[in-house]
Amino acid sequence: MADDQVQITPATKTFDLATVLGLLGAFALIGTAIYLGGSPGSFVNLQSILIVFGGTFAVTTVCFSFAEMFRTISASLKSIIRTVRKPKDAALQMLQISYEARRNGILALQGVTESLEPEPFLHKGITMIVDGSPVNEVSGILQRDL
What we know:
InterPro entries: MotA-like
Structural class: mainly alpha
Keywords: Membrane, Transmembrane, Transmembrane helix
Protein name: MotA/TolQ/ExbB proton channel domain-containing protein
């Protein structure tokens, strides 16, 4: 199978404005409460800040490894920048793959599996089908993955 027959369009990353607006809104509410409350000192206290942030960090390091803590940074960034796949592109790719399988047989999809690696769910399903797994087994495994 020629690689140019099945075009895998990669998912795009987009900025999630809702998360950023939510964070800005929370800080705006805190700022407004400080402004309306009169004295910023009643809201901002160095000792309480040290207890809250220092205590949170200390308890977190007791409960989790540094590797797990650094993974949370990545997870936090993923809440701001999300991956989006256009349903139209995904549907067209599936049609191309199914057409190729009907025209040249299931084993012809072996050449497609490498290009599907950015799409783990699709890659897993096509690989299991090419390997000769029964359809009901593939369906059950993919249903559990969903």
